[in-house]
Design brief:
heterotrimer; A mainly alpha; B mainly alpha; C alpha/beta; B: mainly alpha; C: alpha/beta; six-stranded mixed sheet
């Protein structure tokens, strides 16, 4: 595998677009969007919290698809995609778990509440941390790719079952009434800001995935060169 | 079928000779049950509510201990290659190991359960059928993913640690449902409540058996 | 079985790569029914990888092979039934007795008349008296003999041997050589990889050399200058290292 060119004009363009979009997004969130009546300014974290959750899901979905493709085609590029997406997914899941309590503290008066969604993200976080650990603990590259592909499939298939079981569990131990939940009628400006933020986060994910993938390619190329050098010696 | 039986027979005979697994699982699970007991003040009523949770923690730890060993001999002594060289579908190896793990787990559970009921003063006999059903489907769920993950874990650097790290997050639905179903049984709740939980466990078993069936050959190929 | 048209082994352009490195490069050879081929090669030449591919344990990255005309993709189980493998490891279970080990493998291969065959083969490898002893109590040489019995139990058409002499004492080695000669008389095909030149050349009808994943030499025994073969081998290993 040859080392990629370090600059690709499209990626640079995407980066520039992203920079502008993120600035606009910040303006929308902190200036344009109205302050929510019952929760106040803290509600603005919603524009980070929910899109992060969406991107984490998207990333884990990419891991799932790339895992299936890897087992099917045995092309190491799918393994690289799965690895990159898993890392990004864990990062966004961590953001969900950090922003959730910050939001919950003033609104529900508690740092942590075992709501179905927050619990689901905690479990998702554990699943993909396990995924990244598995990658660390297998020496052989090809074998690690196979194991991770299988675990990536298990992890994603587990999501709906985990969610169903947590829902059933919460039905018995009801959570405090969630004031002004995301689903209640949204103000049009809130809606615009939310969907724009969703769009920006998705763009951010794509950009990060491309960059992470380029890094991964370099890492693999270097390790290949090292192995070749070791063989030649 | 006869090849599944051949592999199962071979493993059961080895175990019968060495008695390594079942005895260590047994001792371990009893110790866990006793140690959990000390986390409550003596004579506490609270223990009744927590009993089904403790019971399942005991079962899960003992199961993981046992399943973690299921491929160790095969891999360390190279016998896995012997199996792979034989004209045997790879899935036969999975099913044989799954049954083996399930048998070990059920043996340990059926000895632990009565002792547990004595230690924690719980009535297990009135609804024994329901308890047995919940224990069976949950143990099957543990074994379905545990057998596959132990085939992964045995090839990693940190064998003993890797299995629980892979197993726990995936098996959380079974853990939640098994604890709740058993708790419902202990509190004499209606069958419909118990069945609501059991149904979800069965769904887990079926879904992951299918996924494992399809992916096992990717794990053991070299 | 029709072996008139099909070679025992036919290998075409087999490659095996791990990442960007090649363990095997474009391996091609042909082996007729009843022939004995020895492949020599230094450590890391890809000998074991080749055996693993031919015994269906590992898939090749590219290329194809057939065994008695059977393709491993289409009928892997049929191929496995025809192969016996003796490798570094014995594939035996220490807590089972000699007879139980053979019974287990016999059942996996659907061997008919199993009990009688086990008795016979244990006699043949000189373990008749130890049939009900656990393998744990066996010496390395005895385990290797039992491993030979395990590989022969289903009467394979093709034997694949990976350094079979490792760990054997003088007596057991001679016994193994005797066995292999017997099998050649029975028109069975054998492929052995080793770096033990004397023993390898003693049995071979055909000799090949594998260096750095490439088959650099493949000759009929009758065309080989046997006395100077060791020198020839070293030359090829040196040259193989150069390119």
């Amino acid at each position: 595998m040859s080392l990629e060119k370090t600059k690709n004009p499209w990626v640079t363009l995407l980066g520039a677009t992203l920079f502008i979009a993120m600035s606009v997004n910040l303006y929308l969130i902190f200036q344009f969007a109205p302050t929510e009546r019952s929760m106040g300014h803290v509600q603005r974290i919603f524009y980070f919290h929910v899109p992060s959750a969406w991107v984490a899901f998207l990333a884990f979905g990419v891991v799932f698809v790339a895992s299936i493709l890897y087992l099917w085609k045995r092309d190491r590029k799918y393994n690289m995609v799965a690895n990159s997406a898993a890392e990004i997914g864990v990062m966004f899941a961590t953001l969900v778990l950090v922003t959730g309590p910050i939001w919950a503290r003033p609104v529900w008066n508690t740092w942590w509440e075992w709501t179905p969604r927050l619990t689901l993200f905690l479990i998702l976080w554990f699943i993909y941390i396990a995924y990244l650990m598995l990658r660390q603990f297998v020496d052989n590259e090809e074998r690690s790719a196979r194991f991770c592909a299988v675990f990536g499939i298990f992890g994603f298939v587990d999501v709906p079952i985990v969610y169903m079981s947590i829902r059933l569990w919460r039905d018995i131990h009801p959570s405090p009434v969630i004031a002004g939940g995301e689903s209640s009628g949204m103000h049009p400006d809130i809606r615009v800001t939310f969907f724009f933020s969703l769009f920006v986060f998705t763009l951010l994910f794509i950009f990060m995935l491309i960059q992470r993938l380029r890094l991964e390619k370099s890492v693999v190329a270097v390790s290949d060169l090292k192995k070749e050098a070791a063989l030649a010696a | 079928m006869s090849k599944i039986a051949a592999i199962l027979w071979k493993d059961l005979l080895s175990e019968f000779r060495s008695k390594e697994m079942v005895i260590s699982m047994m001792v371990f699970s009893l110790m866990v049950a006793v140690i959990f007991n000390f986390s409550f003040p003596p004579g506490s009523e609270f223990i009744k509510d927590a009993a089904s949770g403790i019971l399942w923690m005991t079962f899960i730890f003992a199961s993981l201990l046992g399943m973690g060993r299921s491929f160790v001999y095969e891999v360390d002594k190279g016998c896995m290659q012997g199996l792979m060289l034989a004209p045997v579908d790879r899935i036969v190896i999975y099913v044989a190991k799954l049954l083996l793990n399930l048998i070990f787990i059920l043996i340990v559970e059926s000895i632990t359960l009565p002792l547990f009921s004595i230690f924690f003063k719980l009535d297990i006999w009135t609804d024994l059928g329901a308890i047995a059903l919940v224990i069976f489907v949950s143990s099957l769920g543990f074994a379905v993913i545990g057998t596959l993950f132990s085939a992964i874990a045995v090839n990693t650097k940190t064998r003993e640690v890797m299995l629980p790290i892979l197993h726990f997050p995936i098996s959380i639905p079974v853990i939640i449902c098994a604890v709740q179903a058993t708790s419902a049984i202990f509190q004499g709740e209606a069958w419909s409540v118990i069945w609501g939980w059991t149904r979800l466990i069965i769904m887990f078993d079926v879904v992951f058996f299918i996924v494992a069936f399809w992916t096992f050959e990717f794990i053991i190929e070299e | 079985m029709n072996n008139g048209q099909n070679s025992a082994i036919q290998v075409e352009g087999i490659q095996k790569s791990f990442g960007s490195q090649y363990a095997l490069r474009k391996i091609g050879f042909k082996l007729e029914q009843g022939e004995f081929l020895t492949i020599f090669g230094p450590n890391g030449a890809g000998k074991t990888t080749l055996i693993r591919i031919l015994s269906t344990l590992t898939k090749a990255s590219a290329g194809d092979f057939t065994i008695s005309g059977i393709s491993p993709q289409k009928e892997p189980e049929k191929i496995r039934r025809q192969i016996g493998v003796i490798g570094h490891q014995t594939f035996l279970y220490e807590d089972l007795t000699a007879a139980e080990n053979l019974r287990f493998y016999g059942r996996l291969y659907d061997v008919e008349n199993l009990a009688a065959k086990i008795e016979q083969i244990l006699e043949d490898v000189g373990l008749g008296l130890r049939e009900n002893d656990r393998v744990r109590t066996f010496s390395r040489g005895m385990q290797q003999r039992l491993s030979i019995a395990r590989a022969m139990l289903h009467e394979p058409q093709l034997l694949l041997l990976d350094e079979p002499y490792t760990g054997l004492d003088q007596h057991a080695s001679e016994m193994l050589s005797g066995w292999l000669k017997d099998l050649r008389l029975k028109n069975r095909t054998t492929l052995m990889v080793t770096h033990d030149i004397e023993r390898g050349i003693d049995l071979a009808d055909r000799v090949a050399i594998l260096v750095k994943g490439k088959l650099v030499y493949n000759e009929q025994r009758k065309n080989i200058d046997l006395k100077n073969f060791r020198q020839t081998y070293y030359d090829y290993v040196e040259k193989g290292g150069a390119n």
